[in-house]
Amino acid sequence: MKKKSGFTLIELLVVIAIIAILAAILFPVFAQAREKARAITCVSNMKQVGLAMIQYEQDNDEYLPFANVIDPVTNVETRWYNVVDPYIKNGTKLTTGVNAGKQTGLDGVWHCPSFPTDQSAEYGVDDHLCPPVNNDGAPTHPPGIDAPVLNTAILSTPADTIIVLEKGQSDAGLPSPNGSSWPWFNGWEGWWTDTVGSPPGSVHTGVDYSVTPQSWRVNAIGGGADCDSKPDPTKNVGDDYGNCATSVRYRHQGGANCLFVDGHVKNFARGKINWFKNIYDPGAWQIWGHGEYPPS
Question: Where are the domains of the chain?
Fold first, then answer.
């Protein structure tokens, strides 16, 4: 009698078990490869933004753009990506409202594929290099740009100074159905580290307050910028000002892409941005009226 060919149940179970083991090994590798591709796309986005900013500076006597400005009469807001948009011509324009026709900071090069949604202002400029508007109207803080726009000639180390980085998601604002984040990141020392030493620069603790909670921030604004210990989007308090929406996010396998003033892009591992070297610039600090050196 001819014996029938085929698999026994045990052989079939062994094959299934081998496939399951291989899948368990390979799927994380595939996920890492996918995230690596997203990170590369993000780097490409930033490179294009950097080239556009350099062209803007060349056409404006080497002045950097402001973070945003609001017309007190029409209430029209112009953000930094609006003024560099003519050099990119990519992304989505607003179609309605007082800001109709302006770049939203959505889609195209303005969207990081690893961002949890497609939100306006996923990338933010340093608010010490590109001053934002103050619109609170307090007697000691009248409306207007917080400081003059800066000329790149005053910057000491443009190749070491970050001007744009990836930020967290905010739960506030339009035009996006998912809200709009803040167009800048906080460049002040207190958002980054507890000390730079005395003399300044002699110490870098490695503390990055975008990943380490601070008691003074929790007490002052009801939240903290411990962004990476909770799922993205992070919605700590209201519109998240001073929290993850204005802080660096390390969403590329524990790294964050950063654009420097000279146009190059670098990925920093979590907590490895040196505030004194990569954020602080004595020329910009002086324009803001902080004096030549930051506090120790």
Answer: 11-287
